[in-house]
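Repro:
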Amino acid sequence: MKKTIQLASLMLIAFDATIPSFAYSETDLEKLKKLNACERCDLSNASLHGTYLHGANLSGANLRSASLYEATLNGADLRGTDLSGANLRGAKLRFANLNEADLSESDLSGADLSGANLRGANLSGTFPNAGTRLNRATLSDADLSDADLSGADLSGAKLIFANLSGANLSKTNLSGANFSGVDLRTTNLYEANFRDANLRGVDLRTTNFSFLDLSGVNLKGAHLSDSNFFGANLTGANLSGVDLRTTNLYEANLRGANLSGVDLRATNFSFLDLSGVNLSGANLRQAELRETDLSATNLREADLRGANLSGANLSGVKYCKTRMPSWEEKNDNC
């Protein structure tokens, strides 16, 4: 009889183990539905698919692995919220406050985070896609390491001092974005659009920018040694004060760019279009400028000693205190 009771008890325990349990608090879920607020609540694994939570206060809440597919969270307070592993596909998070939130491993496919504050947020290993909108979002100090942001819209976003190591930004719209203080050396930038972006002072050593649109980009003071700009569009770009001696600019379009004060010693610019470029104060000693279009270029105070200008187009060039290849000084436009 005793053995029968023990066997029955074991069967009940085994049956109980198969009953699904919910990690979230039912009380917290009801509170959220009634008040549209639930600070520091436990809503992990909760199903909030398509829920309307506009302006909701969920700061510090636990929403780990929660389903927020197509939920509306515009203007919501999600500061410090744990959204790791959450399903945010198609969610609306416009102007939401996600300061210091944990979004690691979450699915942001098709989500709209335009204007959202993601300062200091953790987005490592996230899964956005071409439909994800992060335009004008604040991502300063955010952890985006290994994040897949390919095809996402990050136009006008603030990415100051963000961690983008190992991130995938291929085919991403980065026009007008601010990358101040960012290290992009291990970031995948294949076919990304950097038009009018701010890359001032950014560490871009060994970075591959071949064939990218960098027109109007600000690269003043950036570290560009051994970087590759083969076939890149740099029209109107600001490259003032940059050391380009070991940079590959073969077939790059530099028309109208600002290269004032740039160190270009022994650089090969043969056959390039440098018309209208500002090269005032640039160091072009021993530079190769054979068959280069330098029409309407500003060469005031530039140093061209030892440079090769054979076949170069020099029509409309502005000279003042310009040191020519033969070492004489030219002052036609002082």
